[in-house]
Amino acid sequence: MTGFVERIRQGEAKGLIARNGIFIAFIAFMIAFGIGSDKFLSFNNLESVVRSSAMIGVMALGVTIVVISGNLDLSVGSMLSFGTVMVVDLHDKIGPGPAILVMMVCVLLLGAVNGFLIGFVRLNSLIVTLGMLSAIQGLTLIYSGGKNVDVNPSTQDTTWFRVFGRGEVAGIDMPIIIFFVLAIIIGFVIAFTPYGRRVYAVGGNPTAAVFSGIRRNRVVFSTYLISAFCVGIAAIILGSRVMGSQNNVGQGYELLVLASVILGGTSLLGGSGSILKTVIGVLILGFIQNGLLLLGYPYFAQWIVTWVVIILAVWLDVAAKRGRLLSPIA
Amino acid sequence: MSQTSVESTPVQASGGMKANLGWLVRHPIWAFVVMIFIFFSLMTDNFFSLGNFENILVQTSTLGLIALGMTIVMINGNIDLSVGAVVALAASLTVDIMGWPMFESWGNWQILPAVLAGLASGVLLGALNGLIVWKTGVDAFIVTLGAMLGVRGLVFVYTGEQSFFALNFAYSDFGASRFLGLPTLAWVFLIFTVLMHVLLSRTVHGSNTYAVGDNREAAVNAGIRVGPHMMINFMIVGFFAALAGLTLSTQMGASTPNLGRDYELWVITATVLGGTKLTGGAGNIIGTFGGVLAIGILRNGMNLMQVPAFYVLVTLGVILIAVLFLDKQLNRKGGEELRI
Questions:
Q1: Per the domain annotation, does A245 fall within a domain?
Q2: Segment 181-220 of chain B within 8 Å of chain A by CB
Q3: B30-329 — its CATH code?
Q4: Between chain A and chain B, how many beta carbons pairs sit less than 8 Å apart?
Q5: Domain containing A132: what range?
Q6: Is the pLDDT of residue A20 over 80?
Q7: Whole-prediction pTM value?
């Protein structure tokens, strides 16, 4: 007992709270909303929240890898529009299987362009992906001719393509399963394989990584392929769920995705963060939205709360590393 | 006489050429602006006319005003992603407040408190962003990303997701008015461009801006109060975002809660096209003005050539990356890594 008190005195507990602040915040949120609304903690409600967060979550997995390696990806939003429009449009023309294949190849190509420019040409990731955001948005509109696309209503209920967005396995919705399976795979790769350690090394200290024989260019390139792959999966979920797509369906998602990655505690400086934290960050955003709605607040109140939560979360993180609450800047 | 002049011209010309080349290397965007200017003048009938140039200035004034503020914040080594949301907030506040019953008897003067409130909202939110960046030490990218969502949320909650219409027509008349042969909004943009250029290149605050962005620690050691300095710059960009919201709503005579969506991305594009570094310490208003014109001329010219708007997006994206690539080739300093 005394040892515990001593450890608190020495600030160990403070550090523990600060390091795992996101988990504590998550539990606090759940308890607060659970008390505030009796519907909140019901299985149906929890399932619907996780399902509606699954798409952002899948994209956030890829972006987490990019951010850990010290870069940014702002093109995921318009890449999502592109992928969804393409897979929905091709569904009736060449069948669901080939449609998914062609779409994945195209999205991966776009990711490869990102990766080439940032990994090999070494251009600034923020600006390259900002340029790609605009360019891909244009490509989407060129592809669709500005029209919305949808799957032929007569086949919507019979095609096996519907399984990704509307299917269930053992009573659990398919998007949730895809999200968690992908999270486990990517989480395992990034935490327990040599490749994962290379990603952390490149983000933590690029110079040291290069001197220890890591091919920085290739690692950065690969992170953008992973990010594009995740966007492709998200596009399949979205297309399958809605069975149609607008040209700007992913507009603004890049920053929402980034917000949930940051909320999880992955540092934009690179070299730290984890998939588990991102999953929690995504779920917190989803539960804030749902909880506030159930408590009767307007839909957009969640964004105001998100504003406060993001800044508090990152502040806590920064303050714990620095050992003091306020910045020493004069 | 003629002999000497013939001999002296080449020397002068080459000297001038060198100076011009140096200027162009420093502002590669202006070479591009001249190129597309000539291109569109030759390719379309309607591009090369005073009326159209006025159009371009008015169309880009919203983007341009915010870009002026963004330049100074980015030279500081910070960034502001919340400008688009501030545009909507200032526009909604202004258009709403001028319709308040308490100002009904004021006649056209009811616009004054509305405009002041709109501008004040931008300055206050800028101050809030700056204060958070200063006191918490959280990166400006994250702070303003949060504000981008939060302020947009505020706008939606405040407006109840409704559009507002300006009941006082003097307000929308101002948007269409002319002054000394130019649209008033063009004057607003040009005058603030000159003011910001003077602020950046001729004042202590301006040189501090470069010093802070170049090496924050050295700036602290040199006695610059970095925190308040950055806060002032955030207030400046907030002011410009609010002003852009006002100019936009005077043109429409209304405000919508979605106003200014994606503006942050366009403004950053214009600023980066103009040669301002995200890493801080480099950039200037002349370049930013060029970047804004480049976007404006491209949109306008491609529109006149009846190219669908989609291709403008692709072109802009490609040009942004190309300028970044050229910049890297031309101004190779080595060891410049992204610091976000």
A1: yes
A2: 216, 220
A3: 1.10.3470
A4: 172
A5: 26-149+168-314
A6: no
A7: 0.82
Q: Answer yes or no: do B136 and A252 touch at CB < 8 A.
A: no
- Give pLDDT tens digits for B130-175: 999 998 888 888 899 889 889 998 999 888 888 888 777 777 777 7
Question: Which residues in chain A are closer than 8 Å to B216, comparing Cβ atoms?
Answer: 329
Segment 98-137 of chain B within 8 Å of chain A by CB? 132, 134-137
Give A328's contacts in chain B (Cβ within 8 Å).
137
Per-residue three-class SS string for chain B: CHHHHHHHHHHHHHHHHHHHHHHHHHCHHHHHHHHHHHHHHHHCCCCCCHHHHHHHHHHHHHHHHHHHHHHHHHHCCCCCCCHHHHHHHHHHHHHHHCCCHHHHHHHHHHHHHHHHHHHHHHHHHHHHHHHHHHHHCCCHHHHHHHHHHHHHHHHHHHHCCCCEECCCHHHHHHHHCEECCEEHHHHHHHHHHHHHHHHHHHCHHHHHHHHHHHCHHHHHHCCCCHHHHHHHHHHHHHHHHHHHHHHHHHHHCEECCCCCCCHHHHHHHHHHHCCCCCCCCCCCHHHHHHHHHHHHHHHHHHHHCCCCHHHHHHHHHHHHHHHHHHHHHHCCCCCCCCCC
Does the pLDDT of residue B28 top 80, yes or no?
Answer: no
Total number of domains in chain A: 1
CA closest to A67 among chain B residues: B340
Which tops the pLDDT comparison, B209 or B109? B209
pLDDT tens, residue by residue, B84-135: 999 999 999 998 888 777 777 777 777 788 889 999 999 999 999 999 999 8
Inspect the interface and report whether the beta carbons of B156 and A300 lie closer than 8 Å. yes
Q: Please give the pLDDT value at position A84.
A: 93
Residue A245 sits at the chain B interface (C-beta within 8 Å): no
A56 to chain B, any CB pair closer than 8 A? The answer is no
Residues in A touching B331 (Cβ below 8 Å): none
Residue A21 domain-assigned (yes or no):
no
Q: Is A121 on the interface with B (CB under 8 A)?
A: yes
